[in-house]
Fold:
Amino acid sequence: MAQKVYIVEGRQFRTEADYRRALRDKKVIDRLREQIDFQNRSQLSQLVKALQQKKYPFLTLLGQDFMEEAEEALQQLNKSPSGAGKRKGKQAAKKSSGQSPGRKGTAQPPPEDTGQDDQMEKYVQEELRRREKIRKRLALLCSVVAVVCLGYFGIYTYQASRTEREFARLAAYKEKEQDLLVQEVTVGPLIHYTEEGERVIPEVLDEYKNLYNSNKRLIGWLKIDDTKIDYPVMQTTNNEYFLNHNFNQQSDRNGALFLDKDCDVLEPSTNLIIYGHHMKSGNMFGTLDKYSSEEFYKEHPVIQFDSIYEKGTYEVMYVFRSKIYSEEDVVFKYYQFIDAGSEQEFNSNMQEMASMSLYDTGVTASYGDHLLTLSTCDYYVNDGRFVVVAKRVGG
Structure:
């Protein structure tokens, strides 16, 4: 389909809206040409002055073209022999008053068209009022946007600060000697009865009993040296709740670190996947992407993840970028790798992650090893993810 071309006074305009503005400017310019004698130095000088002072509210480049035309005409009059312009002006005035050029007498200027002047003045005033309304609306809109942005920044800063204080408190609480009340009510291993039979629940580690009794959704603690990552890890029956709730179950855009709902720390899943937001403040997994640097990895090859039942040390194997794919995409999806049904499946997943890794750590895993995967948002593509995978090497 051919694109429409809008041309006014030899200039081409891209949109219909610009074309309408150009037609409005042309109407003003045509009126001025009717009123002004371009051979009269006085009238032309006044026109140029008015145009330079932006008395006429032109909306397109036609106004600039007209001003340049008037300035050039005035320059030509000024370059003509002395008095020529005046003589031409006087002769025109005499003709209009019925006098011949040879007769003596004072030539009278042509009568002013007050009707057109009033109409032009009315148009100018309306245009100025319209522009003032637009300016006020834009100023109001900018003010509203500024208030919203400041409010958002204030809330973000408050929540980030609150999160840091709260997790510092929780970290200190973890190290605190076990509460006497907790000591009294905590008992030995529990037995849960399931469809598969009895399941022994081991006793919670002493250092996590205080926290566990504060929130039974606590499942462990993750720590990486020289980062902000020193947080409790939560788990619930879905992977949405802790996206926008903190340890105290308050609404919080920082959320909390949480273990995938399908992972199991008691009968350990092949792969434990922990999710967390990539916050600009550095909170949660905001500093996890430090592992994109091989130098950082070499200085921090070990990650500490304790479940509430036992301690765990993990050695970093793979660091890669991926994304969340649609169900129809036939591609390796790291977030679906939780339990390996066979050695072949395990080795296939290892090969996929090794091929995606940003660098070779030299660390490998065999069927039967247990893995830890840390996943956070990455903005190199839509739904991008930054992923660190580690192998358990000790308690």
In short: Residues 205 and 338 are 25 Å apart (CA to CA).
